[in-house]
DNA sequence: CGGAATCCAGAAAGATACTG
DNA sequence: CAGTATCTTTCTGGATTCCG
């Protein structure tokens, strides 16, 4: 199918914007095995602050990718869960992961080679 | 294969970082049909400034995803071309595009529904 | 525990002008 | 045309603190 036209004002940009965020894909991935509480997510994911996690969850919720469930009881218990749409996004996320698995070494090698040739490292 | 562990310090993050940039994927996509000159890229892609395009190209080059060819002649003629590794990245990019094609409507609908319910729109 | 409120540093990206 | 140099604005993510 090939979905041409990522360019100009294309709808595919919508998906790219979802990825152009450090944590969106990571959090979705961390939710793949079922509902999770924020504290669990922070354990599974390394190095994400409470604030940033909350922001990310709001963002995903806003885009209809996750649902928030507040179970009432002693204290507070909240869980987040993938929606069907959110779950469907795991497919392309997995494709990205598979690529990294296959080609990550070559990218790192290219980075080191560029540095060795005195090229400054762009931010990313 | 499923490439578990996107979490903590995993190599898959390397790939996510490549995507967590507004323009990387778009520029790679614009190069899919063969070598392109910067001015051509700016035409195909909408709304990218010369400066940002250059930065993006340097970044992709640094990661070994594209090559730069400077043809000498009257004036200046430069072309950028995908490396084999860069071309391989089109596969996951295409998966993302296919997802957007299939589910983009639902995401946009969710956004509008959230707004209608008075939820503020997170940045992304 | 969940999460909201601040404050802050750094990075990304846009606009503009300029050089070869 | 390709690329650089500034300047400015916006965004992101991190740290800290406080409330229910």
UniProtKB/TrEMBL annotation, chains A, B:
<dbReference type="InterPro" id="IPR036388">
    <property type="entry name" value="WH-like_DNA-bd_sf"/>
</dbReference>
<keyword id="KW-0238">DNA-binding</keyword>
<dbReference type="InterPro" id="IPR002577">
    <property type="entry name" value="HTH_HxlR"/>
</dbReference>
<keyword id="KW-0804">Transcription</keyword>
<keyword id="KW-0805">Transcription regulation</keyword>
<dbReference type="InterPro" id="IPR036390">
    <property type="entry name" value="WH_DNA-bd_sf"/>
</dbReference>
<feature type="domain" description="HTH hxlR-type">
    <location>
        <begin position="10"/>
        <end position="108"/>
    </location>
</feature>
<dbReference type="Pfam" id="PF01638">
    <property type="entry name" value="HxlR"/>
</dbReference>
<protein>
    <submittedName>
        <fullName>Helix-turn-helix transcriptional regulator</fullName>
    </submittedName>
</protein>
């Amino acid at each position: 199918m090939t979905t041409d036209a990522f360019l100009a004002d294309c709808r595919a940009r919508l998906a790219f914007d979802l990825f152009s965020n450090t944590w969106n894909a990571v959090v979705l991935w961390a939710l793949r095995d079922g509902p999770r509480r924020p504290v669990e997510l922070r354990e599974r994911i390394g190095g994400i602050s409470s604030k940033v996690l909350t922001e990310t969850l709001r963002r995903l919720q806003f885009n209809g990718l996750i649902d928030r469930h507040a179970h009432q009881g002693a204290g507070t218990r909240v869980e987040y869960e993938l929606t069907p749409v959110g779950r469907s996004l795991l497919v392309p996320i997995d494709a990205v992961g598979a690529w990294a698995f296959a080609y990550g070494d070559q990218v790192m090698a290219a980075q080191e080679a560029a540095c060795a040739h005195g090229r400054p490292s762009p931010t990313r």
